[in-house]
Amino acid sequence: MKKSLLVTCILVGLVTIIQSCSKLEPASPKDENLLDGPVEGLSYEESRRFLSGDVAFNDEIFTPEKGLGPVFVATSCGSCHAGDGKGHPFTTLTRFGQIDETGNKFLNQGGPQLQNRAIPGYMPEQIPLGATFSKFTPPANTGLGLLELVSDADILAMADPDDNDNDGISGVPNYGNLPQYIIPFANAIQKDGKYIHRFGKKAAAYSLLHQTVNAYNQDIGITSSYDPVDVYTHLTIDPEISTQTVNDVVFYLQTLKAPIQRQQNDSEVKNGRVIFDRINCSGCHKPTLKTGISTTKALSNKTFHPYTDLLLHDMGAGLDDAYTEGTAKTFEWRTPPLWGLGLSPNSQGGQYHLLHDGRAKSIEEAITLHGGEAANARNEYIQLSAADKNALIKFLKSL
Amino acid sequence: MKKVITTLTIILIGYYIAEAQIDPKLLKRSTLDTAKQSLNMDAVYERPFITVGKLPVSLGGYMEANWQHSGTDGVSEGHQFQFRRMTLFVASTISKRIKFLSEIEFEPAEKEIAIEFAALDLELHPLLNLRGGMIMNPIGAFNQNHDGPKWEFTDRPIAMTQMLPATWSNAGFGIYGKHYNTNWMFGYEIYASSGFDNSIIANKENKTFLPAAKENTERFEEMASGQPLLTGKIAVRHNKIGEIGLSYMGGIYNKWLDDGIVIDDKRRLNIFAIDFNTTLPNLNTFITAEWAWINIDVPTTYSQQFGNKQQGGYADIVQPILKREILGWQNATINLACRFEYVDWNVGKFKETDENIGDELWSIMPGISFRPRPQTVLRANYRIQSQKDLLGNPPTKTAAIQFGVSTYF
C-alpha cells in the first residue's frame, strides 16, 4: 500500500511538473521592449524567408575558412547590431579619403573603409597619410523595410534646399550612382543619371541590398556575386557567400518590425511630444512617413513613425569630420531615425553611444552637440525649463 | 570510421555469442561503488566492468538520456528528448603489469563516434608508469572523471565543456605514478601530446573556444604547431579531508610553419586549473569544485571578439537525504544537489571604451537524484541561467527543467 502511494505521488508530481514547466521559464519581454522580430502580417512563406535571413544575420559567423577578411571589421552581421539595435564603439567603423562630391581619392589605398582588424598572419589597414576620416557607429536595423519604401517623391517633398520657408532648415537628398547589380525602384526619381540614396550616416546607400552587399564586403571581407572584388587583394574572386543568403538577409532587414513606442499615454511623454514640435525638432526628425506599394503585403501602404526625413542637413562645424560620401558635404549628415532610441542602451552595452560616432553619452549631450541647421532647435532646448527638458527626454526615450 | 564500427560490431557480437554459450554464472560483474574514494586520475579504471569467465578482456560502458523543457526570454523550443551519449569501455590485462583500456563514445546528436581513450599502461614502478596511445589530457578533474552516472546533473559543467574542452584527448605519451601512505594519497601525471590549432580563435562560436579544436581529427596524425602540448597534474588526497589537484596544460597552438616557411608568429596557450573534492563527515555532504584560467596569445591586430583570457568553474554540493530500501531496492539513495557555475569567456576591457567586456554566464542548478544502486541514477534538475553578450548588454535569462537517466552497464 505504501509503495503504491509512493509511486502514485511520484507520477502525479512528474505530470504536474511537465504540465507547468513553461510557467517556470522566464517570461517573454513585452514586444515594445524588443527591437527584433518580424512585421505583422507576413505569410508562412515570408516568415520562413525571414527566419532564414535571421539565422544568416545573427548566427552565421565567418572564419578564415569561410572567407573572413583577411582584413575586416567584424566577424558577423550580428556582431555590429546586437538585438538589431544600435552598435557599440567596439564595432564602430572608420571611413576615410573623401572630402567633397568629386569622389574618394584614396580608393587605391584601401578607401573608403578602414578594415582595422586582420586574421592571424595578416596586418590590418592603416589610414593613409593625408586622408581625413570619420567614425560611424552601426545603426539600428529596425523598420528599415518601411524606410526603403518611402517614395522618392515624398523625400523630395520634404527637401527645402533653398530654405524657402525660412525656418533655418534646408535638407537635401544624397544623389549617387547605382552599382550595376541594383535595379532602380519603380517611380525612382533621377537627376543627371544619379538616384536618391537614403541609408547610412551620409545617405550613401541606395537600398538595403546595396547596404547589405557593401557590409558583407567592407565589414566582413566577404565577396558575393553582387560584389566579387576582394577587399584585400582588390581582385575578383569566387563568391564567399551565396546569392540566396544575401537575398535572405535583405528580406530579413526589410521585414524587421518598426519599434513600438512605449508609455504613449503618459502625460509627461505627451507633453514632451508637444515640445518636440514646438522647438522644431520635427523640422528634420519628421514623425510620420508612409510606404508605397510592395510585393510584401505587410509593408504596403503603411503609415509609420520613424522621426526622420531621410535627407542630409548641415549639422555645423562641431560635427564636421572633413570626410564625406556621395554628394554630401562634410558637415552634412542624414537625419537618423529616432524610433527605438530609448532601447539603444540594450544593444550598446547598457549606455548610450549617440550621434554618428557614438561621442554623445546621453540624449541631452546629443541634442546639445547639434549645430548648423539644428542650432535653433538646440538653443531652444537649452532654454527650456528643467521640467520641459525632462518631458522631452522622456518622450524621446519612449520612442 | 568504418574500421571502428567493424571492430565494435565484432566485439559486441563476440560478447553476445560468449554470453549465449557460457553459463551466466561465469559472467563476473564488479560491484564497484563509484562513490568510493580514489583520485580523479584513477577514474578511467574505477569503473564497473564485466568479465567473461577467464577471458582477459573486461567490458563496460554507460549511457545518458534526458528530457528537457527550456526557455530563454520567453522563447521555448518545447519538449526535447535527448540521447546524449553511449560509451563503451574495453579493458584488457595483457599481463600483470601491462594493461590496455579503451573508451569509445557515441554521440548521436553530434554524429560523432569518437575514441576518447585508448592507451597502454606499462608499470615500471608504482611511482613510474608509462602511458601511451590516445590519452586524456589531465587538465582539471572533470576531463578525467566525466562519466554520466557519477553526476547528479543531466548537463556537464559549462566551464568544463565550453571553456575547457571536455573529454579532450590526444595522441601522446607520458608518465604517471601514485604513492599511498595510510590516509594520504599522492599522484602525478605528465604527458606530451598533440594539441590545439587556430580554430580556438576562429570558429563558429565567435569567441575564443578551446573545444573547437576537437573538430580537427587531423590532430591524431599531424599537429598544427608541430610542437607538443604539455599537460601535467599533481593531486593529493587525505581520506578525511579530501582531494586537491593542480594542473597545467600549455604549448604553441597555431600553425606557424608550413612547408618549411614561417607564416606566422608562434602563439602560446596556457591553462591552469585547480580542483577539489571532499565529503563532509557526519553529514556525508559531497562537495566537488573546479576552476580554470586560460591565457591565450591572440594577435593584437585580430578582434577582441576573441578573448585572450578566460576563467570559469563550478561547484557541486550533493547531500544524501535518504539511504534505505526504496521500492525494493536495497540501499537506494535520494540526494539533493545544487550546482553553481560561472564562465567568463573574455576577461578584459574594450580598447575603445576601457569598459569590461561581457561574454559571461552564471547558472544555478538545484536538483534531486535517485540512485537505486550506485551505478545508476535518475535525476531531475532546474537550471536558472543568466548570460551576457560580448558588449555587456542586459543578460538573456534561461530556465530549464531537465530529467535524465544515466547508468553504467
UniProtKB/TrEMBL annotation, chain A:
This is Cytochrome c domain-containing protein. Keywords: Heme, Iron, Metal-binding. Residues 53-257, 267-399 form the Cytochrome c domain. Pfam families: DHOR. It comes from Pedobacter cryoconitis. GO terms for molecular function: cytochrome-c peroxidase activity; electron transfer activity; heme binding; metal ion binding. The keyword Iron applies. InterPro entries: Cyt_c-like_dom, Cyt_c-like_dom_sf, Cytochrome_c_Peroxidase/MauG, DHOR.
From TrEMBL, chain B:
It comes from the Bacteria. InterPro entries: Porin_dom_sf. This is Phosphate-selective porin O/P. It comes from Pedobacter nutrimenti.
